[in-house]
């Protein structure tokens, strides 16, 4: 009887301790990394109202999305213990504002795709697709539209890989927007 009682006591202790440790687990919150520059603060304030990022409703939550192309290409999954600190459109807008790379052009950006895609269990990439409309400084005349399709392999095929990949990819996007804007006709 004592061994049974001892075994039950050990089992309850393990279950209780496991239950407590699981309930203490909180999702990790991520952004795209350190701000691009704090030195551009005055420029950022002028730029803030000039950039608008829009997206479909499903991209306005803060979950990290992934898709297993090799197993179920139509199903979208989410990491349970990793979240963005804000929605991808909000984070992307803040990164562009902080970068100061939009040359004070009023921009409307339509984010269409922002997810990690797995080609195999150990091979993933992040994809970022968006369309940029640039306007003259008076906000009335559209001076250009450009679609951007960016992809990058992730360093690891997991949530950490997705976060690192998006951190690099969004900075590339800011640079590509800057190059495109530089080639537009004068306002």
Detail the topology: elements first, then pairings.
Elements: H1 2-23, E1 28-30, H2 41-48, E2 51-54, E3 63-68, E4 76-84, H3 88-99, E5 107-120, E6 123-135, E7 142-153, H4 159-182
Parallel strand pairs: 1-4, 2-5, 3-5
Antiparallel strand pairs: 3-4, 5-6, 6-7
Task: Produce a short descriptive summary.
The protein is of the alpha/beta class. Helices cover 35% and strands 33% of the residues.
Describe the structure.
The chain is an alpha/beta fold and 187 residues long. It has one domain (29-182): 3-Layer(aba) Sandwich (Rossmann fold). The protein has four helices and seven strands. Strands 1, 2, 3, 4, 5, 6 and 7 form a seven-stranded mixed sheet that branches. A hairpin with a 7-residue loop joins β3 and β4 (76-84). α2 packs across α3. The longest helix is centred in the C-terminal third of the chain and has 24 residues, at 159-182. The radius of gyration is 22 Å and the shape is elongated. The chain starts with a helix and ends in a 5-residue tail after the last helix. The model is unreliable at 10-23 and 37-44 (pLDDT under 50).
- Helix fraction, binned, reads 25-40%
Indicate the radius of gyration in whole angstroms: 22 Å
Q: Calculate the mean pLDDT score and round it.
A: 83
- CATH topology group: Rossmann fold
Quote the beta fraction.
25-35%
Anisotropy-based shape = elongated
The largest sheet, given as strand count, sense and whether it forms a barrel, is: 7 strands, mixed
SSE string, helices as H and strands as E: HEHEEEHEEEH
DSSP, total strands: 7
How many domains, as an integer? Answer: 1
CATH architecture grouping: 3-Layer(aba) Sandwich
The structure class reads alpha/beta
Q: Termini, distance in Å? A: 88 Å
Low-confidence runs (pLDDT<50, min 5 residues)? Answer: 10-23, 37-44
CATH superfamily: ABC-type transport auxiliary lipoprotein component
The CATH C-level class name: Alpha Beta
Number of helices: 4
């Amino acid at each position: 009887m004592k061994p049974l009682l001892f075994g039950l006591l050990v089992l309850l202790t393990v279950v209780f301790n496991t239950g407590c440790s699981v309930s203490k687990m909180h999702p990790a919150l991520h952004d795209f990394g350190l701000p691009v520059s704090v030195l551009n603060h005055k420029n950022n304030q002028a730029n803030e109202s000039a950039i608008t990022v829009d997206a479909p409703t499903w991209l306005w939550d803060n979950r990290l999305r992934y898709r297993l192309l090799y197993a179920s290409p139509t199903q979208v999954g989410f990491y349970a213990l990793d979240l963005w600190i804000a929605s991808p459109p909000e984070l992307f807008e803040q990164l562009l504002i902080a970068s100061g790379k939009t040359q004070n052009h009023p921009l409307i950006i339509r984010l269409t795709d922002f997810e990690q895609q797995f080609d195999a269990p150990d091979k993933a990439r992040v994809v970022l697709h968006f369309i940029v409309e640039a306007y003259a400084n008076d906000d009335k005349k559209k001076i250009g539209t450009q679609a951007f399709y960016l992809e990058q392999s992730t360093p690891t095929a997991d949530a950490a890989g997705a976060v690192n990949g998006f951190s690099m990819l969004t900075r590339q996007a800011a640079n590509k927007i800057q190059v495109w804007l530089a080639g537009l006709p004068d306002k």
